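Chains adopt folds. We examine one example:
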Amino acid sequence: MKARLPLWLWLVLLAAGTLYSLTRVSVVSDMAAFLPRGEGLEQALLLDALREGPAARLIIVALGGTEDTVRLAAASRALAERLQSDSRFLRVANGPSALPTAEQGRWFPYRYLLVPLAPDAFTADRLRVELEARLRELSAPLPALDKARLPADPQAVFRRVLAGWQEGSAPPLQHGVWFDAAGRQALLLLETRAGGFDLDAQAAAHAAILAAVEAGVSVELTGPGIIAAASRDIIRSEVQWLSALATLVLLALLLVAYRSPRLLLLSILPLAAGIVAAVTLTALVFGSLHGITLAFGITLLGVAIDYPLHLFSHLHSGEAPRLTLQRIWPTLRLGVASSAVGYLAMAASPFAGLAQLAVFTVSGLVAAALTVRWVLPLLLPSAPVMRLFPLAAGGAGRGLWPLPLLLLLALAYLLLTPRPLLETELSALSPVPADRRALDERLRRAVGAPDVSRLLLLQGRSAEEVLQRSEALVAPLDALRTEDIIGGYRLPSQYLPAATTQGARAAVLPEPASLAAALEAARQGLPFRAALFQPFVRDVELSRTLAPLTPSAVADTLVGTRLSALLRPHGDGWLGVVPLYAVQDEAALMRWSVQATPSVRYLNLRAAADQMVERFLRGAGAYLLAGLVLILLLLGAGLRSAAQLTRVVLPVLTALALTAALLHALGAQLSLFHLMAMLLVLGLGIDYGLFFARRAATEERARTGHAVTVCAISTASVFGILALSQIPVLHAIGSTVALGVTLSYGFARFVRTT
């Protein structure tokens, strides 16, 4: 009973971990976990835009399926009405008025404070022009809302307010709603409450839209969140069939290698224990588990399948399994420790997701190794193991000289190649099919959604100061637009003028008596009743006494939400963001920004994103190098022989360099996922080198050769299947590991000792 205590303890821990994983662990899908912490103003802005910015929450909907435009317009209005009451959406727009009726009523009294009026706006002559314009409009099919507001707003000032809040170039109108240029699809713009990286919320919004579309009408939709959620589904689908195929291949290989269903089942236990331990400990440390951590972590834990195989191949007839394990444990333990140290380097990454991945992988590897050490010997038979490839590992050790030469050639290629080595564009790794990307581009053009990757940044000590500086940019930006340097812009002050500006506009509004006299003179000869415009006179007088609106006073409105994306606290001050549309001459724009005041800075978010990814990749390379240094120190302490250390490390280093060079020569640029895969190759290659470097008798070397061969063939086969994926992420990991493992095994076997 005492001898079986480790088994019972393992079963209790496994059961507890499984129960906790199934009932308490929350798996999240917010992609923000795999973005770095903001360092500096530009990067903080970029990350905020990717996580929570309005562009990240945008969904474009196109309704079609019939040539009856009246029906499509009715379907558009019905869809907008249904979604406006759905709490998942902040904004639903399908025409000129993007504000709900209730919110329009809240802004209406402040209309004279929100837009500039001409100095003669309240003279009799100007009022006459406005009244005649309203007469002409009354003969046309105006929206009922405009007619209802005519007595209080004969100058149509509020219409100007709403028009000023429109973004980009609005699509053409048919039957009062937006259509594409061809008039075949009705268009809607939606903004979700959840951020673009909250994939579950984006998927729920997608489902809500589809459920709200009336029968008989086709729907197409796109947006960053929609695309991200679709990417997750595509990855999940490919992973399922690739994993099933890889599992079948692995099971077949192990059955052929060991001819024992029992050993096949036992080989799964360390990996299963590793996964349960990794899920449990990662959730306890971080509070939740990211879906990407789970998917990639299980992939990286694939090295754990090698641990029981080493034990199975080294079993001797008549020898207790625990004695076999004691004989190989020092080598196996050193291999596990080396892999764990390599992954621990990721824990220092500024990407929270990679730090989580490090904890997941290390805890899983340790749990798998402990399962092999204390549990498997209690479950194994002592009978001899049948092997298909009794590959001998005998013979004299061979010289190392070819490997340094190959290493130098590979490094020379990587350092001297004229083609970019690193992949710094996130779009290049997108799993979204080409037709889906084409749909996104087409709908964005149709709805006039602007490219907001180029910005001006305004800094001030207060929100009021930033708004004043925003207003001062109107003339310079209009000049840039006139010179075709930019196509347009969006200022924070276009949503809410500075308080001083609102106060100045209120101060020049006319007295009631003078306004009434001018209005009476303007009305002469027109078919308007004398008392019709009393609400107009009353509202102008009320506007003279209104306190200016502030950002905090409108924070709970839709316009306030839009304003908060362009005006926000930052450090001890405030920051304004000015998106620039259709930039035609970036060089001229940059020259202008240099000559502008120090409080104005130009930023290209796309270029900043590329720079951020490049910095991260270089940083990830540094983490990989740091992990390698730790591994060398650990191996040096464990092997206590420079010659042995060289024979263990040189093959895998050569394999890594040659793998990177070959992948690049074949057209790939190295990405984050290639680097992650190289960490796995590093751990596996060191494991192969350690076992081949063991000094043992001929029969023991044959068992070692069999063990490492089975490990290498199974790993290369499984990841070779993964390389068949059309998804760049999966293809990068699969091809890197399959090639790297094959080279590591070949080089390690080449330098095996006597």
About this structure: Confidence is low (pLDDT under 50) at residues 390-397. The longest helix spans residues 224-258.
